[in-house]
Every structure is written in C-alpha cells, then in structure tokens.
Amino acid sequence: MAPPPKFEVKRIPTVPHPGPPPIPEQEIIRRFGANEDAAKKVYDTYTFTETIRVEELGSPGGKFTATGEQYTRADGQRVWRVSKPPESNLRSTNYTLEDVRTIVSLPVFFLTSDEIAKYDFLYAGQQKLDELNTYVFQVKPKLLSRAQRLFQGVVFVDDHDLAIVETYGQFVSELIGTGTRLPFSLFETYCENFQDKYWPPTYTTSDDYVDQPNADQLHLRMVIHATDFKLSTSSTIAAPAPTSAPATRPAANHPPPSSN
User: Fold this and answer.
1) Which residue, among 25, 22, 29, has the nearest Cα to 164 in the 3D structure?
2) 80-102 burial by CB neighbour count: b if 16+ within 10 A, else e?
3) pLDDT tens per residue across span 22-80
4) Beta carbons of 44 and 237 less than 8 angstroms apart
5) I need a surface site. Which of 33, 45, 82, 228 has the fewest CB within 10 A?
6) pLDDT score of 19
7) Is residue 133 scored above 90 in pLDDT?
8) For residue 174, what pLDDT band results from cuts at 50, 70 and 90?
9) What is the pTM of this model?
10) Sequence-ordered list of residues with C-beta below 8 angstroms from that of 16, at least 6 positions apart, any chain
C-alpha cells in the first residue's frame, strides 16, 4: 500500500462546544459499536504478521525490530509467536523479546456494543483526515477497573461508514503503574479498510522520552504494524479475505514504516 499523504491534526479543546452533528450522537455511537462488533469478529479469525519496532530518534540513533505471527488459539486466546530473530543496533538503550511480549500484551481497542456502556462520550465536532470526513468523540471510562485496562482518549468516526478509523489515547485502570520499564503511554492507532466494510486496527505508534545518565532525555518511538492477513485454518467463523479498499473508501492515514 502506497503511503498516504500526511494530514494536519487539529487539537481538540478540553471542553469542546461544537454544533450538533447531522446524525444524532447516540445513533452514531450505536452504529460505530455495531461496526466494531463486526471488525473484531473478523480480526479474531485472521493470522497476520506483526512487526514491533523501537527507534532511537536522537543522533546517533538505532533501531530494534522483532517480527512474529499473531493468531488466535482454539481456546480463544490471542498469541504472538516469534517468526525470525530480533535485530538491533540500538545505541543508548536495550530492548529484548521480553519487552516485545509486554508490548504485544497491550490491549487491542475495539469499542464494541458491549463495551460502550462502560464509557462516557462527548461529541467534539468534525475533522478531515486525508480524504475521510470524521466525527470526533472524547471517550472516558465511567468507572476504572482492576481487572481490565480501559481506553481514555479520542476516537475518529468515518461519516460514511460510521466506523472508527483512528484512536488516540491511553489505557487506564484502577491500579497505579504497570510494573514494566516501557515508557510508552499514549498510543495513536490507525485502522485499515477491509472489503470496503470492516475497519480493524493495523498500525499503532507511540512517542515518549526516557531520562539518560547525563541528564538528557532520549526520544523513543514505538511502532506496531500488522500486515499479511490470512484466514486462520483453525477458525470456525466465516469471513472474507481482506483486500485493500477501493479508491472511493481510502484507508485511514498512517505514516509508512521506515525502511530497514
């Protein structure tokens, strides 16, 4: 897929005061919940290649890359399995497969019909993402949970399909801290259009900083990129093979992975 052009992000005010959308807000929420139900069902029937990359953005900088296969076991648990040895030329920090397993354990956020009741929504207006016109909602959990990490942030809903095409935010719980040394906290996730009707998440990025012994801060970027979707041979749910969307329904914008 050719990289789409970049778009200018308009920051959303803390308390937005837009006019009402052309479709009632609750109807938009109900319909994107139904679309998330369908996207998650299809997503769970596929195996795909998932590449995790951590980059040092300073100079000199380096990169750590790990590639594996993501699939669903017969018991319904999602599993990531290494498919080739990690590669690294990091200069100022160190990442291992143990860190990768922490990264792939991050929740894949689907705001399904069952999940919607756990959140408060605040309509924040409309925003254009490349060729997509979107409705923007601020999302916040009604109550925090010890058993589940919930999403807090912003979702962008395509005004044609009424499907979530991008999210930006963090995962929160009642517990303080995660017990890991990973610095990443805010995640921007882009969705890709399959068969002109499903929008599963395929590309996540996060930037953050870590303190260095010389009092400087090291700028790190993490990218999680899913490609090569194939219908799982163990799947019992019928689902069409994903293809790139036709030109009339472009994928949500995402930055292309850096080369090598």
Assistant:
1) 29
2) beeeeebebeeeebebeeebbeb
3) 999 999 999 999 999 999 998 888 999 999 999 999 778 899 999 999 988 888 788 89
4) yes
5) 228
6) 77
7) yes
8) confident
9) 0.81
10) 122, 123, 124, 125, 138
